[in-house]
Amino acid sequence: MFPETRLRRLRRTEGLRSLVRENAVVMDDLIYPLFVEEGIDTPLPIESMPGVSREPEAAVGDAVKAAHAAGVKAIMLFGVSHAKDAEGGDAMRSDGLLARMVRRAKDACPEMTVFADVCFCEYTDHGHCGVIVHGDVHNDRTIANLGAQAVVAAEAGVDVVAPSGMMDGQVAAIRAALDEAGHPNLPIMAYSSKFASGFYGPFREASGTSLKGDRRTYQMDPGNGREALRESLDDEAEGADILMVKPGMPYLDVLARLRDHTLLPLAVYQVSGEYAMIRFAAEAGAIDEDTSIMESLLAFKRAGADLILTYFAKRAGELIRQAG
Ligand code: PBG
Predict the structure, then answer these.
(1) Tens of pLDDT along 48-64?
(2) Contact 138, 131 (CB under 8 A)
(3) 20 to 30 Å CA-CA from 259: which of 54, 63, 203, 253?
């Protein structure tokens, strides 16, 4: 009790503060999402995400090497397809965009750990995450396709597959398909607590999806915390190797609760809208950008995340290096 206890004693110098700091963000934690578009020649800036562009397919190798030079050790690839159809067939072809971009990334920079988003929304002409039957995404047909898509990514040399479609049973279906195809050692990072969120707004521009409507019949209701635990523990039981909470900042409570319910590594996705909020607020002079970036990433660590997907990964690399 005061006056014997004075918590400010350990805040007096940066030397002391850094010694007692409970969490740190290091580059080993970060995954940098990368949008790859076929059929374009120059990078296409995404207006709602200043500083982020869609990279031309032919430049994937360079983009991956540039990220690696900036200290990034892992990337997540998203394809922007020009070959969309009702089922997203391109993503299931061994010469489709998904397979090609994974191959290019691994060829250019074998040391980079490459994750692939496994979902159909970037490859369907309606923009939904799977096969539409009677006006809604058909769960069981979609998970069969997800298995095929994951195998295509695996054969192209991906390091981790990351199913993001929120279909029931998708992790089990993908695990079975991978094992059957001779990839029992390929890990699955499941987007297990993925909420139907307004914070994906800029991603819709970034990924060039043609979605009309919303994803509320498959992504989670933002009011549900207990259900997020069920989703996550289901995915664990189905064989997920890493669980993910998404979005990040509005769902730190879910992350912290999940930390107490599983021993698996936990990932969190700081999504496009969270990136945009920080960027635009900083541009308007309302907040200091670098301080806010590192504070947001630290919050994820404090809440229990092991891995963080963030569009700030390259910038964080510079800031971490500067801080020494
Ligand atoms: C696709 C997918 C989405 C994101 C990652 N994978 C969008 C969505 O579900 O609508 C969002 C990423 C972001 O906003 O940064 N299933």
Answers:
(1) 999 999 999 999 999 99
(2) yes
(3) 203
Catalytic (active-site) positions: 194, 246
Kindly report the pTM of this predicted structure.
Answer: 0.97
Q: Does residue 121's CB lie within 6 angstroms of at least one atom of ligand 1?
A: yes
CB 174 within 8 Å of CB 145 = no
Buried/exposed 276-296: b ≥16 CB within 10 Å, e otherwise:
bbbbeebeeeebeebebbbeb
What are the structural domains of the chain? Answer: 23-323 (3.20.20.70)
The first and second tokens of residue 78, run together, are 């998203």
CA distances (Å), 175 to each of 14, 119, 184, 200, 223, in order? 47, 15, 8, 27, 30
- Distance, in Å, from the CA atom of 165 to the CA atom of 8, rounded to the nearest integer, reads 47
The reply to whether ligand 1 has any atom less than 6 angstroms from the CB of 203 is yes
pLDDT higher than 90, residue 92: yes
